[in-house]
Design brief:
single chain, TIM Barrel, eight-stranded parallel sheet, 13 helices
Length: 360
């Protein structure tokens, strides 16, 4: 029978990998001349997570089944060298058994961490937390960041009807702010927004983008974005509908500045904190997943500098509609909006500034 490493052996292997630095995996030398994109937004499907969902009779992520071999194949085809993994909807908060939820969060994080150990440089991860369990989340964040060497934390939104600005998250955000952590926020299904428009899949079509915008506004309205300035927030899907609602969010008239991004209109005499809100929005990061089109990205690039845009594919969810090469499609879609140094920054360099360990 094949030897299965114990948790002690697994943690030791993680420590060894961290001490030894990132090594190029077999065949990686052939990729040196390729783009070496860093994919901020992609999803694995850990077996323990599927088993947990089945035990809780929860909805399974049935679209576009994930396998490691296929993911690596598609990464190589699309020029992606590093994929930063998280789990997709329906998340892990299912059923009344708090310990089972904490356990599956740990299993997901160890599964993704082991992929990174086995294939150095090819996989990183954003750790799953058992939110709204704050005590369990603080312990899991410590283990994931210190022992498993996760790249950051993945948060969902909303949590029921709670958004990131709610005071319940304060103890977690204080710790993540102390660590200058990266927090990747992915929209989550909400039972209260399902089926609002009959005949369409409301969540994926409309609500995901709206949930993201609500989360961003929650951070601004509550003051949480200002209270935790060291957290590097990353929002999925080009910020949802935020770019299109910008004037309402900021509460001021807007004009284009000299650098081609928006600024407050100097003719607007309204007195509010519009400048502060706009500055916070321009400090956040936004990925390109599911938004590689000139309308969405054209709007986003008017809001934030290129330094705040990172590449994402939503793999394997992005392979809908029979498109066999989703990563290739997404990489090609960016070239219609960005070029030259801008394209290189979005596809790789902005991520490397957040995570210098991937520079090699």
């Amino acid at each position: 029978m094949e030897h299965q490493p114990s948790r002690r052996e697994f943690v030791a292997s993680l420590a060894g990998a961290a001490a030894g630095g990132l090594l190029l995996s077999g065949g990686a030398a052939a990729q040196q001349a390729r783009p070496r994109l860093i994919d901020f937004h992609c999803h694995s499907v850990p077996p323990a997570w599927i088993a947990f969902l089945k035990a809780q009779r929860a909805e399974l992520p049935t679209n576009n089944p994930w396998t490691l071999s296929k993911h690596l194949e598609d990464m190589d085809r699309g020029g992606v060298y590093t994929s930063l993994l998280s789990v997709v909807s329906p998340g892990i908060w299912h059923g009344p058994d708090l310990q089972a939820i904490r356990t599956v969060a740990r299993q997901i994080n160890e599964f993704n961490a082991k992929l990174g150990v086995d294939r150095p440089g090819r996989f990183g991860s954003f750790a799953t937390l058992p939110l709204l369990d704050i005590d369990g989340s603080l312990r899991e964040a410590e283990y994931a960041l210190d022992v498993l060497k996760a790249d950051g934390i993945c948060m969902r939104t909303p949590y029921g009807n709670l958004w990131h600005g709610d005071p319940v998250f304060a103890p977690l955000f204080e710790e993540l702010n102390r660590r200058s952590a990266v927090v990747f926020t992915h929209p989550q299904d909400a039972h209260w927004s399902e089926g609002l428009v009959p005949g369409i899949e409301t969540e994926a079509t409309i609500e995901y983008g709206t949930h993201t915008t609500r989360t961003i506004v929650s951070l601004l309205e509550s003051g949480a974005a200002a209270r935790y300035p060291n957290i590097r927030w990353v929002f999925a899907h080009a910020g949802g509908t935020m770019p299109f609602l910008l004037s309402r969010i900021v509460g001021r008239k807007l004009a284009l500045g000299a650098d081609g991004t928006v600024a407050l209109d100097p003719t607007d005499r309204a007195r509010n904190d519009g400048a502060g809100r706009l500055a916070q929005l321009r400090r956040f990061f936004y990925d390109t997943a599911q938004q590689t089109n000139p309308v969405a990205l054209g709007a986003l690039r008017r809001v934030v500098p290129i330094s705040q845009v990172v590449f994402g594919t939503d793999y394997p969810e992005s392979s809908s509609g029979g498109r066999a090469e989703p990563i290739t499609d997404h990489a090609a879609g960016l070239s219609g909006v960005f070029s030259g140094d801008e394209l290189r920054a979005v596809q790789r360099e902005n991520a490397v500034k957040l995570f210098p360990k991937y520079r090699t």
